[in-house]
UniProtKB/TrEMBL annotation:
Listed name of the protein: Diguanylate cyclase (GGDEF)-like protein
Coiled-coil intervals, chain numbering: 17-76
CDD domains: EAL (cd01948), GGDEF (cd01949)
Organism from which the protein derives: Methylobacterium aerolatum
Pfam family, one: GGDEF
SUPFAM superfamilies, alphabetized: EAL domain-like, Nucleotide cyclase
Boundaries of every GGDEF domain copy: 111-240
NCBIfam families the record matches: GGDEF (TIGR00254)
Domain EAL: residue ranges: 249-502
Amino acid sequence: MPPDPLPPPGDNPDERLARLARRVERERRARLEAESLLEEKSRALFTANRNLAQLAASLETRVAERTLEANDARERAVALAERDSLTGIANRVRFTDRLGALIEQARQSGEGFALLLLDLDRFKETNDALGHEAGDTLLRCVARRLVRLPGAWCVARLGGDEFAAIVPATEDGIEAQVQALQARLRKPLRFQGQRLEVSASIGVALFPQDATDSRDLQRFADIALFRAKVLRDCHARYEAAMGREIEVRRELGSELARALRIGEVVPWFQPIVDGTSLRPNGVEALARWHHPQRGLVSPGDFLAIAEERRLMGELFARILRAACPVAKRWLAEGVIQFLSVNVSPSQFRSGNLVQDLAALLAELDFPAECLVVEITEEILMLDLDGARRQLQDIAALGVRIALDDFGVGYSNIGYLRHLPFHKLKLDRSLIADLGKDPKVRVMLSAIVDLARALDLGIVAEGVEDPHQALLLAHLGCRDLQGYLFGRPMPEAELDAFFRHGASPRRAAV
């Protein structure tokens, strides 16, 4: 502010004081205004700083929260990547990593271990009959039982109904371990009032005896599992010779479908005779495969392959198409009264059997009342109500039904009262001890009396000597079948017996 001009001459002191006072007042007001403005700006700056600090703190908190969430998500992702979502045990990825790590540790320590690969028996049938919820329950139960395996280093579900376990083991001790595991797995469980049977086939390979790297160890255990699955509910230890056997089976599997198409698989016939007259009463058609290079392939081999490759329906149709015209001729000649054929459990459970039977009978113009289909009790175990409906539909076609292999396994006689059976086929294991063990005769007599009371026919299979035949006829068995009367044979050889009375036993191949 510029200084006041000098007072004009003659200016008195009071005026000068007044002007000074006015100047001081102006300066004071200016100072107050400046201080007020500065205070206002300071408050605004303080508020801004405080807001920035709060924002920074909030951002820091959110960053920390997001970091925790990201870590949790990462941990969950790792868990999902390494754990089976249904059972909670390790999955294939985790198992593969763990197996590789254990091999490295074992190389350092010199300690051996066993790799067990497990495949549940009849799991697909359980799933199909009772639904996926029952199948999931079964898988979780198996996982829990495997986790309790003493000393297991790793237990995993590899996918579907296949599991794996790595256990410390020596070559001498693994047999007992596997048997104990199978016994643990066999304990049945309940699902919605249904009894679920549990069993598994197990393949075993040892480190370092069988293989010294992860890939070969898994491959060899898988080969052993393949061998075990042929018999079901058993285990197999890898042997070097298995590799060629598996290769042969795979070759046969690829050739079987072709063999069915071109007619290499044909029916052979085994006579079933009247227990009193010993004259032929019927024939059972059995599939036989004469391979152009391998010769006659064992039925046990190619039937198992047909099951694995889901060819049983095609095989059944092939045998029926070939057997019915032959049997129809024998029926017309009056030399037999019926043709008997086997139905596999997988074919029965496919749900197509009734429709296929009706179509084949119409196509072949074969009398339904002269056809007997043989089923095993295994068909009834998973879904009795479903089996009852299907058997009733088969009986409604006019086809007769025989319960095969009766007297072994569970042999639930309640089935006989509730299901439309026409015949019982006594298992050959019962016949084998007839005449040797008095209790067998008593038991067979009771079975025959039961069948007679329920108006069921009896067929005794596995008859091999005349003494057995006489005892069975005396007990009341109407139909007898076995090597005493003839092995399964081609059409032409059985024709010779019917025409000339030649012994089927001599004509058999």
